[in-house]
Write a structure and sequence with these properties.
53% helix, Endonuclease III, domain 1
Length: 201
Amino acid sequence: MSNLIKGPDGKPRCSWCSATPEYIDYHDEEWGYPVDDDYHLFEKLCLESFQSGLSWRTILAKRENFRAAFRNFDFDEMARFTQKDIDRLLKDAGIVRHRGKIEAAINNAKCAKELIKQEGSLAAYFWRYEPDRKKLAEPQTVSTCEESVALSKDLKKKGWKFVGPTTVYAFMQAMGLVNDHAKGCVSRTKVANARKQFKRP
């Protein structure tokens, strides 16, 4: 049971919540609940890309700054960003100032628009990669799965950047394509119920 901790209310939660108090609300209210909103999905994949090599704690603390800097991750607006925007973002101390990741986010906004033309929505595309629950490893024991590898490969083929299999798996965990809450965690059953009621796009 080492993958569980007691939360401030005495209830068991995933042990990663102990890293910072801010994780509790994120864990309880967001992580693992299924999402079908294209803008929310795009935002999360962008933020996971920015997290590459860093901690989620760093990104979560800057999330509102990221939203302001990237126009709430409206991919239609982001696709029109120019060099002037890149220069603006590189001077923004409120976000992660990594040129490659900033340029990747803008590139991926253009790719998102193209993908929606082809698939109807990002949600319809991403949810096709929902793993078979019976084939998944024990919660929080792996950092990739067969489907995250396949999704990463297809996104890269379509021109997306900073979307490796580990980044994509973290996205899948967060957006509810898998329920990776630890067994015994107070949120595991809640997320399982939300996934049962969720209408796949």
